[in-house]
Design a protein that fits this description.
Layout: E1 3-9, E2 12-17, E3 20-23, E4 28-30, E5 34-39, E6 43-51, H1 53-68, H2 82-107, E7 113-121, E8 127-131, E9 137-139, E10 146-150, H3 156-162, H4 169-186, E11 194-200, E12 208-212, H5 217-235, H6 241-244
Antiparallel strand pairs: 1-2, 1-10, 2-11, 3-4, 5-6, 6-7, 7-8, 8-9, 11-12
Length: 246
């Protein structure tokens, strides 16, 4: 399991992901779930993945292979719209799952993987899409301008309370970090380091990117202030009637 999210606000896009792929008593593995593809001035894309690591890695390998093949019928640079690219990634995922379906069924192992694709193509708007294991996809809405894949329930409340279209990119990024931290605290299958990418609409440049570990000063400070703020807010909640009599 893992947790990835993308946020769309007026000024741009925020992407965040954890790096844990397996958790057990004596074995923990980490892999990046974030891939960035940029052609300056033409398009800038970010791909997040959750689910079967074998499937998601095979999809990324197929993407890179098609980019290197001049005879490939489609690749990331040929899509005129971001939904064209989302459809392409969904078909790659379906192809990989179907290829190994008989063997996986015998082993009772799931090959399903989910993806979030976001970015911008020159002349088009900034967009984010969630691509389901079945190959179909949805885009974020104005009412809910974020998408999540993986273990999403622990990190959802802050997104619902904070994120709107007018939220600044920096606040959206801080919100994404708190969302990831909340999930890490509550679920052992989600773990550090956290990757964060920020794309400014119409820049058509490589998104700003950073990786935060447990000892990263910014991440430690964010954790401390968020925890202290929650405690202070809790202490200030209204008293019950019988408490007021004391």
């Amino acid at each position: 399991m893992t947790y990835c999210l993308a946020i769309r606000v007026n000024k741009g896009l925020v992407f965040a992901s954890d790096s844990r792929t397996n958790a057990g008593v004596d074995y923990v593995a980490t892999y990046s779930k974030m891939n960035r593809f940029t052609w300056e001035g033409e398009r800038s894309l970010v791909l997040l993945s959750a689910g079967s690591l074998a499937t998601s890695q095979a999809v990324v390998n197929a993407i890179n292979s098609d980019l290197e093949d001049p005879d490939a019928p489609f690749n990331l640079r040929k899509g005129k719209h971001l939904y064209d690219v989302a459809s392409y990634i969904g078909s790659l995922s379906q192809r990989e799952q179907l290829q190994h379906a008989p063997a996986l069924e015998k082993s009772k192992v799931s090959a399903e993987a989910s993806f979030i694709l976001g970015g911008q193509i020159a002349g088009k708007s900034c967009e984010i899409y969630m691509i389901y294991p079945q190959g179909n996809y949805i885009s974020a809405s104005d009412d809910t301008p974020y998408l999540q894949i993986g273990e999403n329930k622990y990190g959802k409340p802050i997104l619902d309370r904070i994120i709107t279209a007018s939220t600044s990119l920096e606040d959206a990024a801080r919100c994404a970090m708190v969302s990831l931290d909340s999930t890490v605290r509550s679920n052992i299958s989600v773990g550090l380091p956290i990757e964060l990418a920020i794309y400014t609409c119409d820049s058509l440049e490589t998104p700003w990117h950073n990786k935060y570990r447990a000892f990263s000063p910014m991440f430690k400070s964010m954790q401390k202030q968020w925890n202290e703020g929650l405690r202070q807010a809790f202490s200030g909640l209204p008293r019950f009637d019988w408490e007021k009599e004391d």
